[in-house]
Write a structure and sequence with these properties.
The protein is of the alpha/beta class. About 25% of the residues lie in helices and about 10% in strands. The chain is globular, with a radius of gyration of 35 Å.
């Protein structure tokens, strides 16, 4: 997500948090820019700070922290975010900066991993990105770079050695075997059983299978029947009863 609120009034929203946890529970990784308030108070940014979100900070082409990049405890990994060529709102390209293009790099890396290993969970993908990152800070991570600079090729290679984590799905109980009750007809869950038609009671009339309105027109007009080649006889219904 290339969005966030890192103002002085930024605060967590239970509804946003619930939406993110719902997405994670459905197996969807959530990526967010860490924020561009590094020079404006360095406030906590949401949704980057919600649990489970892969928060991305920005680095320069020298692998140094971009001055505008927010530095906080929720930083997961970093990616290039300074002097990035990107599409303009019109038809041109511009050179821009921000943690938003950095988050786009990470989203692309996750899409690459998912294209080859679609059953990996969000937690496994997060681990892949952090465990294969380059330029790991002392101690394994820090607030400026997270676990380090993402390495999509290394993460994709490491993903081949992972087995998908089984999801916790509710166990389905087998449907009970329902049989017809003796002497009381078929059970409601079984297909309805129809008795064969009695030919003595259900005799097709001469116009059986034709359109009733067409037979009525032929009879009223006195025209010959286009099917039989003779004057149309009396109109009968589907049960042989004479109509009219």
């Amino acid at each position: 997500m290339s969005l966030g609120d890192d103002s002085e009034t930024a605060h967590p929203d239970p509804r946003e948090d619930a939406a993110i946890q719902y997405a994670l529970g459905k197996g969807i990784p959530v990526v967010a820019s860490a924020g561009n308030g590094g020079e404006k108070g360095n406030h906590v940014s949401y949704p980057a700070a919600y649990p489970g979100v892969i928060a991305v900070t920005a680095v320069t082409h020298l692998d140094a922290r971009a001055s505008f990049s927010t530095s906080h405890w929720y930083a997961t990994v970093c990616a290039p975010g300074n002097d990035i060529l990107m599409a303009d709102h019109g038809t041109d390209y511009v050179s821009g900066q921000g943690t938003s293009p950095a988050a786009a790099f990470v989203s692309g890396a996750i899409a690459l991993i998912r294209s080859a290993h679609r059953d990996l969970s969000p937690a496994q993908i997060r681990t892949l990105l952090t465990s294969t990152a380059q330029h790991r800070p002392d101690g394994g991570r820090n607030d400026d770079f997270g676990a380090g600079l993402i390495d999509p090729a290394a993460a994709l290679k490491a993903a081949a050695n992972l087995a998908p984590t089984p999801r916790n799905r509710p166990r389905r109980l087998p449907a009970p075997l329902l049989r017809p009750r003796p002497g009381r007809g078929p059970h409601r869950r079984h297909p309805r059983q129809l008795a064969p038609l009695d030919p003595r009671r259900h005799r097709p009339g001469p116009h059986h299978g034709r359109r009733p309105h067409l037979a009525a027109v032929l009879r009223g007009s006195g025209l010959t029947s286009p099917v039989a080649g003779r004057p149309a006889g009396p109109l009968r219904g589907p049960f042989g009863r004479r109509v009219g």
